[in-house]
Amino acid sequence: MRQSALFTKIRREAPKDEAAKNAQLLIRAGFIHKEMAGVYSFLPLGWRVLNKINEIIRRAMNALGAIELHLTGLQNPTPWQASGRWSDQEADFWFKTKLKNKSIVGLAATHEEPLVSLLRDHLHSYRDLPFCVYQIQTKFRNETRAKSGLLRCREFLMKDLYSFHHSQEEFELFYDKVRSAYEDIFKTVGLGGRTHLTFAGGGTFSRYSYEFQTVCEAGEDTIYLSENKGVAVNAEIINDEVLRQFGLEKEELVPHRAIEVGNLFNLGQRFSEALDLTYLDEKGNKQPVWMGSYGLGPSRLLGTIVEVFADDKGLVWPRSLAPFLVHLLALRAQNPEVKKFAEKLYEQLERVELEVLFDDRDLTAGEQFAESDLIGLPYRVVVSEKALTSGKFEIVSRIDGSIESLSLDEVVKFLKTKHV
Amino acid sequence: MRQSALFTKIRREAPKDEAAKNAQLLIRAGFIHKEMAGVYSFLPLGWRVLNKINEIIRRAMNALGAIELHLTGLQNPTPWQASGRWSDQEADFWFKTKLKNKSIVGLAATHEEPLVSLLRDHLHSYRDLPFCVYQIQTKFRNETRAKSGLLRCREFLMKDLYSFHHSQEEFELFYDKVRSAYEDIFKTVGLGGRTHLTFAGGGTFSRYSYEFQTVCEAGEDTIYLSENKGVAVNAEIINDEVLRQFGLEKEELVPHRAIEVGNLFNLGQRFSEALDLTYLDEKGNKQPVWMGSYGLGPSRLLGTIVEVFADDKGLVWPRSLAPFLVHLLALRAQNPEVKKFAEKLYEQLERVELEVLFDDRDLTAGEQFAESDLIGLPYRVVVSEKALTSGKFEIVSRIDGSIESLSLDEVVKFLKTKHV
Questions:
Q1: Which residue of B has its CA nearest to A125?
Q2: What is the pTM of this model?
Q3: Does any domain span residue B318?
Q4: Is the ipTM of this complex over 0.85?
């Protein structure tokens, strides 16, 4: 894409009403726009990153055999009343609104109730189980404070997966598969090493729940981590019993600030009993369905990536998520030879299906470099008078600063090997 | 996909609380679920169709040079107050809700105001124009009555494109390109012949507005159509002046019920003046931006397709939108030879990347055929004892009922030519 065709502009100054590093940088670089605290629009560069995250998640969900669907934002109160999560005393997350006839409806912060409710039309026999469904859908959550940019929003994108089983044993086998799919996702987006499966028992729903927590100073949570034993526990639930359960000594645990990037809940029969989702077993007896739910927020993950990888020059994108792989700069584009050559290289890179952001604007070299650092694409290639004379082009890695000086053919070959 | 792995079940009876044919059939066939009047969840089959529509639209928008972004559902009142569309007296479409601190926010029914508002951070010079952006995003609209299934919803998917220009002349050139892109979209989804560019001047925003109207009995609108002259006018605005303007005689106009499937608005400077979106021209003078907006609702389009093509046996999908191209039926799947053969054929079709729904369930032939008719995939292939004996397999077209009797190799070849 030509940068001259991208309507977003870079800002030099951080927005004054934004404390979080992730939102500051993403706003400055034109990836997002703040509509109000905890509510952000995704501008073209941000939307590209978010879609790459969604596709990574989607592939992982499809590989689990999960089928995609799409539930609604507006929520009928009935199933929520049945489960005991409708009133503001029972659940603190609601935005509520009124139809023209004055009846009150909610905006979904999660979807256990409507999903279980609609499945009563479809699930009858033991032959219909197990199965799992997921969606990547906008959620609304009436947060009292929303100060962490994309890490805690009032409106955000969520991947929510739900699984339905004959029994707890069957659920547990599937739970392990989801855990492993989540580990792959965090590895793919570059957070593998610092993301830990964390015991968070006593979660919203059941005695057993786990989270994936990414170690990061910007996190709102604290986890206790034993690197040796590969065990992490959320600070909120740690006590002597938990230590005993995991065979841990207090001394070996190191506290870390962390961001909850995913969660896995054993819902048991809580919702199937409240909403009467049953199946007939082989003997013709009614049985409540055993359920699991598994959350992973693409927009929070995007914010986490920024918090973890950005440096003092700006954003730094892993190759798997970068809005473009290459930032091609025509330095002093008013020089017709530079311009012509850069245009040719741009076409050549597009032809081999590399994702290129082509800075064809007539700015100073200083501005071009500073903006390029802020946007943070993995590789920068510069076409300049000097490069044309020497026949050597510099490819600079935004991730580690390494520089390759290559001939034109080698530039194309090198970048092709970096394509994700 | 194996039908045994699809959790949705077919219903024999139409839901009692649903008057619209599109919603009745889509619910019976397991494509959607009604959460409340005008609010529908998309189940896997429906979600597949909706995504195909989205991709057709997305390709057309990208070809126009439009860049995708994603604005928010929750709306800050400030820009809407500035444009005069915040109070319920001024605009009848609002759902409103409250943050925890009691301040009121809205749910977006459209996005002119927030988009114009955010562009003030990015648009400065005549060099920044023209450009256009679009999104495919959920809208909320507080309809008093919602009785037409997917044709008029309280929550629905909308593609909204917005263009920004130096002048009216420049806008008009772009407007023609969008009109032509819309014509291509309606042709691709099979509605070309019955969809008419319809004058609807005096629309919400400006003296000139056009709609695309699809002739269909289920439509809420009436249009007057002169087939000869290729001119259509919305009944709401027809009068002597309009007749004169288009050189029409009353006698040549035939009234038709129709569904508004798209619209094109000349917004002029209404929003840029109200919200102070200006650019500096070449002489350094401030100028308000000239705008257009262009709507097309994927979920309404889906409902329209059903209304237009469905027959008394059920849904009928054009190839460009069908959730799967082929319905492969293993007739009497309890026969191990039939089962084995059907499995092999299923694998073979998947290998050549055809989209196949494989009915591997153990139902009666009557049930399988009736369900297959209801779901309405373009081609049905039956593996039965008879077919195995004769070596001839019937491919039945759901669209025109034509039957081809082919050998196994020919079946695969035939279907490959039908792949969209």
A1: B7
A2: 0.96
A3: no
A4: yes
